[in-house]
Amino acid sequence: MTVALHADIARLKRSNPEIFARPLLARLRDWSLWLVFLGLVAFALWWIDASPMRIFNGLSKLGMLVGLMIPPWPGDGFWDYCRAMLETIAMAFLGTVIAAVIAVPLGFLGAKNIVPNWLFHFTLRRFFDAFRGIDGLVWALIFVSAVGLGPFAGVLAIAVGDVMVLGKLFAEAIENVDKKPVDGVRASGGGGLHVVRLGVLPQVFPVMMSHVLYFFESNVRSATILGIVGAGGIGLQLSDRIRINNWQQAAFIILMILVTVAIIDAISRRIRARLV
Amino acid sequence: MSVLTPAGGLRASTTQQERLLSFEGRYRREQSTRLFWTLGYALLFFAALLASINASDFSLPGLVKGLPMAWNYIAGTLPKLSIATFGADMADWYWGLNYWLRLLLETILMGFAGTVLGGLLALALCFPASRNLVANGSVYFIARRTLEFCRTVPELVFALIFVFAFGLGPFAGVLAIAVHTAGSLGKLFAEVNENVDPRPIEGVRAAGGNWPMVMRLAVVPQALPNYASYLLLRFEINVRGASALGIVGAGGIGQDLYVAIRQFEYTDISAIMLLLIATTSVIDILCEFIRHRLIGHDLTGSA
C-alpha cells in the first residue's frame, strides 16, 4: 500500500512539477527579500550599537532600578500627584473639545460631496495628512517655547495635533453619508444650510462623537507625558522624580497613570456603546 | 377599524379621540424626558468644561494673547525665500542637510529595529494571550496583563527609564519602542488568533500535533497576512514616535529638533519639521503600497 502510494507521488511529481516545487525564480525572489530584510535588521542593530555586553550591563542596572521601585510609595506628595493627574485629564479634555470644535467646519470643507472643487479638496486633504507626521510631544515643545511653561501649552499642543486628524476623519464620515435623505431635503425645497442640518448632520453626528471620544481617550494617554517637556500635568511630576532618582515615587506615579487610563477607557467604552 | 363596529360608532370615535389624546400625552412625556436628559448631559459637559478650564489655567485672555504669540512663533520659523536668490536661500535654510539626513536615517532605523524586535516579542506572547488557544486560565491572564502593562505605560516613560539603564543613544529608544510595540501588537495579534478558523486546529490536533505544532501549522498560516498588515501600520506609527524619543536623549532626529527649539534657531526648526513630515509621508505611502501587495484589496478595509 505505502509503496504504491510513494510511487504514485513520484509519478505525480514528474508529470506536473510546478505543483510540488515553486518555480526557481519565485523562490530566488523570496529568498533575496528575506536576505535584504535580515541585512536591514543586522544593519539597524549595528547602528544602534546593540552589543551583548551592553545588554547585559543594562539589564543588571535595570534590575537594580526595579528593586529601587519596590514598594511604590507616594511619600508626602500624594495630593500633589492627584492635582497633577486632574490637570492632565483637564488638558486632554479641553484640547479635545477645542480640536473637535475647529475640526467640524474643516471636515465639511474637506468633504468631496459638500465642496466639489477638486483642487481645493486635494490641497486641504494633503494639508491634513502633512500634519499627522508630527508627534504630539513636538507640538508641546513648540508651544512651551511660544506661550511659556504650564498646562496651557499642553492644551494647545493637543488641540493643534488633533485638529488635522479629526478634520480628516470627519471629512471621511461626511463623504460616507447616505445620499437619499440629502435628496429628500432638497426635493422638499431645503437650501444648502438645511441640507447640512437635516440631511447630513443626523447621520454623521454619532460617528463624529465616537471619534471624539476615542481621541479623548488617546489624548489622556498622551497628555500624561506632555509634562516631560514642561507642559504641566502628571508628566512633569514623573520626569522630576526620575531626574532626582526617586524611583519609589516614580513607580507610584506610573501605577497612578495605569489606573487612571484604565478607568477612562472603561467609561468611554460605555458611552461609545450607548451612542453607536 | 373601530368605525366598523356596528353598535357603537360614537363610542368608537371617542376611543379614537382618547387614544389620540393619550398618544399626545405620551409623546409629550417622551419629549420632556428626552429634553431633560439632553439638558442633563449638556450641564454635565459644561461642568466638566468649566472644571477643566479651571484646572488647566486656561483663560480666554490667555488664549487671545497666546494664539498670536504661537502664530508669530510658527511664522517666525519660516525662512525668507526670494526667487532671485532661491538657491542660496535654500542652501542657507538646509545648511545641515547631510547631518539631518543621517539623524533621520537613525530615526527610521530605530523605528524599524523597534518594530522588528517588538513584533517578535508580540508573536511570542500572542498565542498564550488568545482565549481559544490556551486551556490554562492563569497563563492567559498573565499574558494578557503583561501585554496591557507594556501597552499602557507610555513609550516615553520606558525611554526615560532605559536611558537611565542603558545610557544615552538610540539603543534605549529602540528598546522603548520594542516594549510598547510588543504590547499593542500582541493584543492585535491575539485578536487575529481568536478569529481563525478552528477546523485546521482540530485537524492538526487529530493528526497528533502538539501545542507548538498546532500554532505553527494551523494558526500562523491563517493569521500571517493580518500580522504583516498590523506590523506595517505599527512601523509607520513607530517612525513618528521615534522622532519624539530624541527629546529625552534616546537618539534620532528628535534630539536635534529639541536643541533647535530650545536655542531658538528658528529656521532650523521648520527645516527639520519639513524633513520629518516628508519622511513620514513617504513611509506611509510605501507601507500602504506593500500592504496592498501583501493582502490584496479585500482585507485592507478591516486593517
TrEMBL record, chain A:
Transmembrane segments: 31-48, 55-73, 93-115, 136-160, 195-216, 223-239, 251-268
Compartmental location: Cell membrane
Membrane topology, as annotated: Multi-pass membrane protein
Domain ABC transmembrane type-1: 85-268
DNA damage keyword on record: no
Origin superkingdom: Bacteria
Keyword terms of this UniProt record: Membrane, Transmembrane, Transmembrane helix, Transport
Family the UniProt entry places it in: Belongs to the binding-protein-dependent transport system permease family.
Name of the protein in its database record: Phosphonate ABC transporter, permease protein PhnE
Classification of source organism: Bacteria, Pseudomonadati, Pseudomonadota, Alphaproteobacteria, Hyphomicrobiales
UniProtKB/TrEMBL annotation, chain B:
Segments crossing the lipid bilayer: 35-53, 107-130, 156-179
PANTHER family with a match to the protein in the record: ABC TRANSPORT SYSTEM PERMEASE PROTEIN P69, PHOSPHONATES TRANSPORT SYSTEM PERMEASE PROTEIN
Family: Belongs to the binding-protein-dependent transport system permease family.
Name the record gives this protein: Phosphonate ABC transporter, permease protein PhnE
Cellular compartment(s): Cell membrane
Domain ABC transmembrane type-1 residue range list: 104-287
Encoding gene, per UniProt annotation: phoE
Membrane topology type: Multi-pass membrane protein
Keywords recorded for this protein, A-Z: Cell membrane, Membrane, Transmembrane, Transmembrane helix, Transport
Pfam families xref list: BPD_transp_1
Keyword Methyltransferase included in the entry's annotation: no
Lineage of source species: Bacteria, Pseudomonadati, Pseudomonadota, Alphaproteobacteria, Hyphomicrobiales
Keyword Magnesium recorded: no
